[in-house]
Amino acid sequence: MAEEGTVQVEVTVSLPGPLAREAEARGLLTPETLQALIQAELRRGRVEQFFSAADRLAGLPAKALTEAEVEREIEAARAERRSPRASSS
After folding, report:
1. pLDDT per residue over 27-61, tens digit each?
2. What is the pLDDT of residue 25?
3. Alpha carbons 31 and 28: distance in angstroms, whole number
4. Which residues, 6+ apart, have CB-to-CB distance to 15 below 8 Å?
5. What are the Cα distances from residue 13, in Å, to 16, 24, 29, 37, 68?
6. 3-class DSSP state for residue 55?
């Protein structure tokens, strides 16, 4: 994924004194650390969405393919990849 330019965002956070002092002492309020925390939370959200979708998909009624049907699907996919149309895309 190509990285876009940096956008500067100013954020003001009100924290209880003890929490602010501890976070500052541990280096949690630096731009680099806040960026890492936000990235980790976004990644966690994407993973959660993925597993939620997988759970919904697993809950759908589906007939299992036979071994012969799986083999036919594999052969069809291989044939499509070998076709001239596939290499020109």
Report:
1. 999 999 999 999 999 999 999 999 999 999 888 88
2. 97
3. 9
4. 23
5. 10, 13, 10, 15, 60
6. helix
SS3 content of the chain, % helix, strand, coil (to 5): 65, 0, 35
Whether the CA torsion 51, 57, 59, 64 is positive or negative: it is negative
14 has pLDDT over 80: yes
Q: What is the pLDDT of residue 17?
A: 97
- Neighbouring C-beta atoms of residue 14, cutoff 10 Å: 5
pLDDT of residue 64: 84
Pairwise CA distance, residues 37 & 59, whole Å: 33
The single-letter code of the amino acid at 83 is S
Tokens read off for 57: 């998909």
Burial class of 53 by CB neighbour count within 10 A (0 to 12, 13 to 18, 19+): exposed
